[in-house]
Amino acid sequence: MNTTHIVTVSAYKGGVGKTTVAMELAGALGAILVDCDWDRGGASGSWGAALSDGRLLRALLRDSPPRPLRRPGRPDLVPSSAGLAEWIGDPAIVAGRLRDWAEAWGRPVVIDTHPGAVPMTDAAWAAADVVVVPVGIAWPELRALEGLLAERATAFTLILAPNRVRDRAVIRPQLKALVNMARTYGVAVAPPVGDYPWLPRRRRRSALVLTPNPGRAVAAAAADFRSLAHKVEQALAVEAPELQKQAEVLEATHG
């Protein structure tokens, strides 16, 4: 990977495992995780950082790269700030700052986003070389995905990441719909991440991909996330769309 690549993890619908995907991708790619989701259930809470930290919002206001938090077994993190919920910044300017931070850090960056289309999420899209979209294999999630693809597939390098995939025989119609959508819009689909019911109940805040000497269940889940990371690395080896084109789509979509 280029040391300054930016990978944004985003979805129009919540509850699709976006935060877990972002944390595991950051761990697998050796990236800094920037948490732009101010909800308590986001990456900062899962990592163990407080939303009162405030360094992300201060860095955006001062235009200076924040210092990531570091702990063993977890990706380096720039925690989210509660004030982001009320803050409205220019997505194009914020995207430029995120790219500047990646240059200053000399590290890949993974950005976790708030669900839906808000200014910070738009900025994370505009800054990204690749956008990973976690997908729940159920009809409501697939309908939300189709709306996202209709708006943005032509301007961004997207990877659809099927997540929490259960018995494929049971969900075959939904899987077929996902594949057809991917073909229609010309986007890549990553190897699926399986359904691990124990994962949301797991108390340890370390990333699965950074767990030393994992047991069988953790090793299987970590292997799924590493396969997703490998797909991201493959996409980053291909020239990403021009940032100007991305900015134009965001401006047309959100005025």
Written account of the structure:
The chain has one domain: P-loop containing nucleotide triphosphate hydrolases (Rossmann fold, 3-Layer(aba) Sandwich), CATH 3.40.50. The model is unreliable at 240-247 (pLDDT under 50). The chain contains 9 helices and 7 strands. It is 43% helix and 12% strand. It has helices spanning 18-29, 43-47, 55-62, 91-105, 119-127, 139-152, 172-185, 216-236, 243-254; strands at 6-9, 32-36, 77-78, 109-113, 130-136, 158-163, 188-189. It is of the alpha/beta class and 255 residues long. A 7-stranded parallel sheet has the order 3-2-4-1-5-6-7, with helices on both faces. Strand 5 (130-136), helix 6 (139-152) and strand 6 (158-163) form a beta-alpha-beta unit.
Topology, please?
Layout: E1 6-9, H1 18-29, E2 32-36, H2 43-47, H3 55-62, E3 77-78, H4 91-105, E4 109-113, H5 119-127, E5 130-136, H6 139-152, E6 158-163, H7 172-185, E7 188-189, H8 216-236, H9 243-254
Parallel strand pairs: 1-4, 1-5, 2-3, 2-4, 5-6, 6-7
Short characterization:
This protein has 255 residues and is an alpha/beta fold. Helix content is 43%, strand content 12%.
Structure keywords:
single chain, 255 residues, alpha/beta, Rossmann fold, 7-stranded parallel β-sheet, 9 helices, 12% strand, globular
Q: Proportion of β residues?
A: 5-15%
> Tell me, what's the shape?
globular
The helix tally amounts to: 9
CATH topology label? Rossmann fold
Tell me the name of the CATH class: Alpha Beta
> What name goes with the CATH superfamily?
P-loop containing nucleotide triphosphate hydrolases
Radius of gyration: 17 Å
Can you give the helix content as a percent range?
40-55%
Structural class determined from secondary elements: alpha/beta
